[in-house]
Amino acid sequence: MIFFKLFLTFFKIGLFTFGGGYAMLPLIQSEVASNGWLGEADLLDFVAVAESTPGPFAINIATYIGAETGGLFGSFCATLGVVLPSFIIILIVAKFYIAFRKSRLVEGVMTGLRPTVLGLIGCAAVTMAMTVFFPAGLTLTLTPAVGVSLAIFAAALVAVLRFKVHPILVILSAAALGVGCGYLGVW
Amino acid sequence: MKNKKKKSASPAPGGEGTDLSAGSPAPGGEEKDLTAARRARKSTLRLALEVFLVFFKIGAFTFGGGYAMIALIEREIAERKKYVTKSDILDIVAVAESTPGPIAINMATFVGYRTAGVLGSFFATLGVVLPSFIIIFALSFVLRQFKDVKQVRWAFNGIRAAVLALIVKGWVSMAKACPKSVFSLIVAVVSFVCAVLFDKVIHFSLLWIIAGAALCGLVYSVIRDKTGKGAGK
After folding, report:
1. Nearest CA distance, A2 vs chain B (angstrom)
2. Are B51 and B120 in contact (CB under 8 A)?
3. Which of A86, A149, A187 sits opposite B109 (nearest CB)?
4. CA-angle at B209, arms to B203 and B215, nearest 5°
5. B89-139 pLDDT, tens per residue?
6. Which residues of B touch A124 (CB under 8 A)?
C-alpha cells in the first residue's frame, strides 16, 4: 500500500513539475507534509544533502523519501514514479517535436507556467524560512539562535549571489559554523 | 521526410555508407534503407549501451541537477560522441523545459531517443538515474545513524540557513529567465498568495494553481495574438 502511494505521489509530482532546479520543491513540500513522510526541517536538511551529492534533485529526493518510508522497494517505486511521466511524455514529444516546438498551445501554457512556478517557490521558501528562523513559532525576541541563523543566511546569500561561491563550499562552511556555534551553546 | 532524416542520423557510427542514400529518394533507396535499418538495429543495442555509460557518467558527476548537466551533455554527447549536434542541444533544452518532469530526465530521454530510439531513451534515463539512486540509498542509512549525534544536529542547524540562501539563489536565476511582463508579475503574485492560502487556511492542492496558471497563460496568449493581429490590420 505504501509502495503504491509512493509511486502515485511521485508520479503526480513528476507530472506537474515544470522547469529545473527547485521547481519541484513546492509540490514535494506539500505532498510530503500532507502524508507526514518528512518534516519541514528534515526536508531542508535533505536539500543540503541533495546539493552535496551528484545527480538530479528530483531523483535524489524521491529515492530518499522512498528509502525512509519503504526501504529499497520504496525507493524504487518513488523513483520510478517521478521518472515515468517524463519518460512517456518525452517519447511522444520526440516523435512530433517540430510540431511541439512551434505549437502555440505549448507556448501559451508556458506563458502561465513560468511565473506560477516563481510564486510557488516563493511560498515554499517563506514557509521554510519560518521553520529555520522560528522553529518554536513566530516570536519577536531575538535569541542567539535566530541571530546566528540570520547571519549565516545573509552571508550565504552574498556568497552565492555576489561571489558565485560553489554551493557545496557554502554548505560546508555553514556546517562548520553550526558546529562551532553548538560548542558555544547557541542552539 | 522528417522521419527519414532522424533515422539516418541515428545509426551514424554503424551505417556511414548507406547514410548518403537515405537522403535521396532514388529508386532502390527503399531497399538500401532496409539494409540500413537492419544494420542500424544491430548497432542500436551497442549505441544504447554507449548512451547508458555516457549518461551514467553525467549522472555521477553533476552536482545541482538539470542545468548543471547541460554543459556536460554538450561536451560528451555533442562534441565527443557526436550523437547530436550542438544546435540540437538547444532544442533539447527548450523541449525539456516546456515538458513536465525533471529537466535532467527529460534531456536524457530525449538524447537517448535521438541516438538509439526507444531503447536508447530507456538506457539513457536508466544511466542518469542509477548513480543518484545508489548513492542516496546508501546514504539514507548513514544519515539515519548520525541523525542523533549532537555535532551533526548542530551542523544541520547551520546548514538550513545556508540552504535557504541556495533556494533564494535558484529563485533569482529562474526569475531572470522568466519573460518580464505585467501578466507574469500578476500570475507570480497571485500564485504566491494562493499558495500561502492553500497552505495555511484552506487545504487545497497546489496542482490547482498550476493548472489554473496554465489555463490563464493559454487564454492570455490567445487574446494577445488576436488583438495583436487586429491592430496589425
Report:
1. 18
2. yes
3. A86
4. 150
5. 888 888 888 899 988 899 999 999 988 899 999 999 999 999 999 999 999
6. 167, 195
| C-beta of residue B131 within 8 angstroms of C-beta of residue B62 | no
A8 neighbors B163 (Cβ within 8 angstroms): no
User: Residues B156, B157, B158, CA angle at the centre, nearest 5°?
Assistant: 85
Rounded CA separation A162/B224 (Å): 37
Nearest Cα of chain A lies from the Cα of B28 at a distance, in angstroms, of 26
Residue B132 cell numbers, joined? 543518484
Reading the block at residue A176, the C-alpha cell is 562548520
% of chain B beyond a pLDDT of 90 = 39
The C-alpha atoms of residue B85 and residue A1 are separated, in whole angstroms, by: 45
Give me the percent of chain B exceeding a pLDDT of 70.
Answer: 79
Q: Say whether B63 sits in a helix, a strand or coil.
A: strand
Is residue B223 less than 8 Å (CB to CB) from chain A?
A: no
ipTM score of complex:
0.88
Residue A63 pLDDT greater than 90, yes or no: yes
Cα-based angle A25, A29, A32 (whole degrees, multiple of 5): 130
Give the C-alpha separation, A17 to A27, whole Å: 8
Length of chain A: 187
- The C-alpha cell 539512486 sits at B133
Return d(Cα B54, Cα A57) in angstroms, integer: 19
Segment B29-58 shows an average pLDDT of 75
The string of DSSP letters for A59-80 reads: HHHHHHHHHHHHHHHHHHHHHH
